[in-house]
């Protein structure tokens, strides 16, 4: 049957359920279930119809009149829908609470698209989500895949695996716009397309590519360096050095020469060159240096690091210093200089202040005729530097390092030199002239061979060195050439030698003081000293005590027993005892001693008396003197003119 009204009455319910007037509990239950289902179905159909109407009403292209008409339909539809749901709830014995009815009324009011307040709120929400609404409204270009829109200030990033592919693309007319970024993936660097610039690489096809700095500065490969050990990368690397104060080398082998390093200021942070993963070499035999520093401007605060540097035979110096280099650091792990007439660092009469030179293994050749490190000035131009090479290797006919000055009135001041473990340095290790306050550290020489120079030479030919300190020198092997020694003081004043030693009594080191004044030797062992001064050389060691030409102060040795009136002095202080422990004995001759030596004698026991006899042997006393108690003593001085001992003083404490 069909219902005659939108909401069926109770008679219609009864008829539709087929109850024919009979009412039972089962019939009532069935009636309620059927009514609820029917109402829900009717409600669903109506809701769909109403949604269709709402969609129609939301068509923003309709006219104002149309929207008003549609809004009325929407309100009617919402009212009908609410009535349908009321019926469902009535049929299931449910009811709205006051709060729910209020909420539904609010939803109905908010859905009114003709209400000014609702429309304003919706517009404000859209504005808050879109920050450039004016630009969106002004967009008048298609943006589909078939369109070609144009945009101002848009950065486009293009990627190429290698520079070669980039060059090929420019040659083929690839499209580039000023401001585009171009990334070379394999090289790990980027360019920016520009109209002009001083960092231009590769600058192909009429397009200027400006190099962009990476985290470590400017990659030399972005300037065109190859790093294959064959291609000459000089121009590309020089462009990197010239273009910035921070350059780095990716891993590789870079063939080049005459690379110039200039500039860098304290206020600007200096200059950084990082080749700590790379090998830089000149194997061309072109006679040129690998690096030339400060040729045009002073180098300040240079921080140079490299893993390996190499110059083959026929090349020049590794570092040629042509101008002032100050407050800088050069740190290279491995250096090979194979050209025997050139050095690793060569410096000529320029300011070289407060720099740090550091290396692990720096090698020249067995026949080298040039110092590995050579610094020469006419005044105090090499001052306040530290040189720290862990393994200097090889010197031929010249010292491994020379620090020289030809000034007649000034010095190179306050340098610290640590040439720690020189090997096969038969040409000598260090030569100093006109230096002041120089410290030489930890020079342990290995596999020296037959030397052709002194190992360390301090001063010479009127070039005085002042206040030189030599610590921890040792020569473990090798033989000294005729007339040569380990440490030679050619023209030196106030030289301090500490812990210098050979390896055993069979391998002594030789120290020639050469009559130079104010020399101190301390803490040394297995050494031999020649030509000390007659007035002011001091030798102090733990096992031998203190020695000067005027006095020998050593630990007191065991007592000397008199044999036929004679003893032999070997130390400064001796206890003397009678022959065969007799109660008394005479002492008239003392062997040993040289001009100026001092000797102090005491008796070994108060129970036995030793009498020194005046004029009987080689003792020249103020009369005989008896050492009757251990508290008594006599002091003697050896006199070459008398070939004997002259009394200086006596101490008689018998009472």
Question: What does this protein structure show overall?
Answer:
The structure is a single chain. With 655 residues, this protein is an alpha/beta fold. It folds into four domains: 10-128, no CATH class; 157-211, no CATH class; 271-547; 552-651. The protein contains eight helices and 51 strands. The strands form eight sheets. The chain has a 19-stranded mixed sheet that branches. Strands 9-11-14-17-20-23-27-30-33-35-37 form an eleven-stranded parallel sheet. Strands 41-43-46-50-51-48 form a six-stranded mixed sheet, with no helix packed on it. β1 (157-160), α7 (163-171) and β2 form a beta-alpha-beta unit. The longest helix has 33 residues, at 25-57. The protein is elongated. The model is unreliable at 1-25 (pLDDT under 50).
Q: Share of helix among residues?
A: 10-25%
Structural class call reads: alpha/beta
Strand content: 25-35%
Largest sheet: 19 strands, mixed
Cα end-to-end separation:
158 Å
In short:
The chain is an alpha/beta fold and 655 residues long. 18% of the residues lie in helices and 34% in strands. It is built from eight helices and 51 strands.
What's the layout of helices and strands?
Blueprint: H1 10-17, H2 25-57, H3 64-91, H4 98-110, H5 116-129, H6 133-138, E1 157-160, H7 163-171, E2 181-184, E3 189-194, E4 208-212, E5 218-219, E6 228-232, H8 234-243, E7 246-248, E8 252-255, E9 259-261, E10 271-282, E11 291-293, E12 299-300, E13 302-311, E14 319-321, E15 325-326, E16 329-337, E17 345-348, E18 352-353, E19 356-363, E20 373-377, E21 382-383, E22 386-395, E23 401-405, E24 412-413, E25 416-419, E26 423-425, E27 430-432, E28 435-441, E29 444-445, E30 456-458, E31 465-471, E32 474-475, E33 487-489, E34 492-498, E35 509-512, E36 519-522, E37 527-530, E38 537-541, E39 545-547, E40 552-553, E41 560-561, E42 566-568, E43 573-577, E44 584-587, E45 589-591, E46 598-603, E47 609-612, E48 619-620, E49 625-627, E50 633-639, E51 644-651
Parallel strand pairs: 1-2, 5-7, 6-8, 7-10, 8-10, 9-11, 10-13, 11-14, 12-15, 13-16, 14-17, 15-18, 16-19, 17-20, 18-21, 19-22, 20-23, 22-25, 22-26, 23-27, 24-28, 25-28, 27-30, 28-31, 29-32, 30-33, 31-34, 33-35, 34-36, 35-37, 36-38, 41-43, 42-45, 43-46, 44-47, 48-51
Antiparallel strand pairs: 2-3, 3-4, 38-39, 39-40, 46-50, 47-49, 50-51
Helix pairs in contact: 2-3
């Amino acid at each position: 049957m069909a219902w005659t009204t939108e909401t069926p009455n109770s008679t219609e319910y009864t008829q539709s359920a087929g109850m024919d007037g009979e009412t039972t509990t089962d019939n009532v239950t069935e009636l309620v279930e059927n009514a609820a289902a029917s109402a829900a179905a009717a409600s669903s159909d109506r809701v769909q119809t109403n949604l269709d109407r709402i969609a129609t009403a939301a068509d923003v292209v309709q006219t104002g009149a149309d929207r008003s008409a549609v809004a009325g339909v929407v309100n009617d539809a919402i009212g009908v829908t609410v009535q349908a749901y009321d019926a469902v709830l009535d049929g299931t014995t449910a009811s709205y609470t006051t709060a729910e009815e209020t909420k539904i009324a609010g939803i109905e009011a908010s859905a009114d698209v003709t209400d000014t307040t609702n429309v304003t709120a919706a517009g404000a929400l859209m504005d808050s989500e879109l920050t450039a609404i004016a630009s969106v409204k002004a967009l008048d270009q298609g943006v589909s895949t078939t369109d070609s829109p144009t945009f101002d200030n848009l950065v486009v990033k293009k990627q190429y695996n290698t520079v070669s592919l980039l060059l090929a693309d420019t040659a083929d007319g690839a499209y580039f716009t000023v401001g585009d970024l171009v990334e070379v993936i394999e090289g790990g660097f980027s360019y920016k397309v520009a109209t002009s610039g001083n960092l231009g690489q590769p600058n192909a096809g009429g397009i200027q590519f400006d190099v962009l700095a990476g985290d470590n500065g400017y990659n030399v490969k972005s300037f065109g360096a190859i790093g294959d050990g064959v291609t000459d990368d000089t121009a590309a690397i020089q462009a990197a050095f010239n273009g910035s104060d921070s350059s780095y080398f990716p891993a590789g082998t870079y063939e080049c020469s005459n690379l110039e390093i200039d500039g860098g200021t304290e206020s600007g942070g200096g200059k950084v060159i990082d080749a700590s993963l790379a090998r830089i070499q000149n194997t061309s035999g072109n006679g040129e240096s690998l690096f030339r520093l400060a040729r045009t401007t002073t180098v300040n605060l240079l921080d140079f690091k490299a893993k390996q540097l190499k110059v083959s035979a026929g090349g020049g110096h590794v570092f040629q210093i042509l101008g002032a280099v100050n407050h800088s650091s050069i740190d290279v792990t491995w250096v090979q200089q194979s050209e025997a007439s050139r050095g690793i660092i060569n410096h000529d009469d320029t300011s070289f202040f407060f720099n740090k030179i550091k290396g692990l293994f720096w090698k020249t050749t067995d026949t080298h005729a040039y110092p590995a490190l050579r610094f020469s000035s006419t005044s105090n131009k090499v001052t306040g530097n530290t040189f720290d090479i862990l393994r200097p290797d090889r010197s031929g006919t010249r010292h491994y390092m020379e620090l020289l000055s030809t000034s007649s009135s000034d010095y190179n001041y306050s340098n610290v030199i640590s040439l720690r473990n020189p090997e096969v340095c038969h040409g000598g290790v260090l030569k100093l002239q006109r230096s002041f306050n120089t410290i030489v550290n930890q020079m342990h020489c290995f596999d020296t061979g037959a030397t052709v120079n002194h190992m360390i030479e301090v001063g010479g030919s009127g070039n005085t060195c002042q206040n030189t300190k030599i610590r921890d020198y040792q020569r473990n092997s090798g033989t000294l050439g005729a007339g040569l020694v380990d440490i030679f003081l050619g023209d030196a004043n106030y030289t301090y030698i500490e812990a210098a030693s050979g390896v055993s009594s069979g391998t002594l080191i030789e120290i020639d003081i050469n009559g130079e004044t104010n020399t101190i030797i301390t803490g040394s062992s297995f050494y031999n000293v020649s030509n000390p001064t007659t007035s002011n050389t001091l030798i102090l060691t733990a096992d031998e005590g203190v020695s000067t030409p005027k006095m020998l102060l050593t630990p007191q040795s065991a007592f000397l027993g008199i044999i036929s009136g004679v003893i032999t002095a070997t130390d400064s202080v001796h206890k003397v005892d009678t022959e065969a422990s007799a109660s008394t004995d005479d002492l008239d001759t003392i062997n040993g001693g040289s001009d100026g030596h001092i000797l102090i004698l005491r008796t070994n026991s108060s129970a036995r008396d030793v009498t020194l006899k005046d004029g009987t042997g080689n003792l020249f006393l103020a009369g005989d003197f008896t050492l009757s108690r251990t508290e008594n003593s006599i002091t003697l001085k050896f006199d070459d003119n008398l070939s004997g001992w002259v009394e200086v003083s006596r101490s008689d404490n018998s009472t």
